[in-house]
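Hi support team,

I submitted a single chain yesterday and got back a structure, but I'm not sure I'm reading the token output correctly. Could someone confirm the output below corresponds to the sequence I sent? I've pasted both exactly as they appear in my results page.

Thanks,
R.
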Amino acid sequence: MTPTDGIAAVALGLGKTVVEGAPCFRFCPAYPQHNVEFSTVEDMVKNSQREFWALRVGANGNPNAWVEDGPLVRAPLDVAEEDGVLTWLGSTFSPENNAVYDGMSRPGVRLVSMAPILKHGMFPLADILKELLQVGEAGTSSPVEIEFAVNVATPRGEPKEFAFLQLRPLSANRELDEVELERLPPEDLICESPSALGHGHLDNIQDMVVVDRNRFERAHSQECAGAVARFNAELSQAGRPYILIGVGRWGSTHPWLGIPVRWADIAGAAVIVEAGFKDFRVTPSQGTHFFQNLTSLNVGYFTVNQNVGEGFVDWDWLAGQDAREEMGCVRHIRFAKPVVVTMNGTVQKGVIRKPGVGK
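Hi R., thanks for writing in. Yes, this is the structure output for that exact sequence:
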């Protein structure tokens, strides 16, 4: 397998499972029977999807499911087995034999393995995806990402359905050459992330908009979003790219989980840092349309969860810098010297150096 072969992330139920980073099934359409994540029985039992999102129908919904997000319910696999859908996607783990068997004919623990489709050809999913990736790349002159849905629960005698929902070109790298991330002492860095999107060097940024983690209050996240939007508008109008650092999820629809900005409110940022709360780990918001804007427009995106050792932001150093303007806990800082950003998309690491620290 190579990166150009592509990767598919699929799940039983609605796409909320994939978008939120919950356990799902990943495979390469060019090699659908080589499943690295499920190479052992222990891996399958540990990593397999065990529940799914569905749309609640009727006044009370299914008694075996429970409401989690408005009209959506999260249900266990036995609901899908009763409906006959799991037959197309499932395998069975036998604790007595410590083995996983394709299909639902044996008693045991149900797992979503996609084996009936990918191993036994009950639906040509891998062939369809492989062809669509090739056609999309030919049509856009770049690798693409597609969103799709499959309906295997059609009425008896009718064909199964593959729905092609959306196609987006993946961003081209800023630099084709390998980007070296030299080892620097932490005191030379504003931020370091082990989970970064983007590739290349940026050395022309002198502005930074920072949501101070030590002063941020979740109850005032709406006001914080308004301040960020104002600074973004001013810097965009002046043609000044900037680095945006905040806490929680950018663009969160739930104001208690992050800062509920729209894309237009932060569109002028060249690099966006999403840092965890002091008491809450942030899961990277990969897969949503909001963050597809980041990759398609070549905006750097760093995830930091300092409290569990996943990178850091030097909050104390930032707090000690003079602000050009402040609105609540949101500060606009302008440095006398440029800040250098280095991102390596191959290893998904990135650093932001303090002003004056060269390449």
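A quick pointer for reading it: The CA atoms of residues 32 and 240 lie 46 Å apart. Let us know if anything else looks off.

Best,
Support desk
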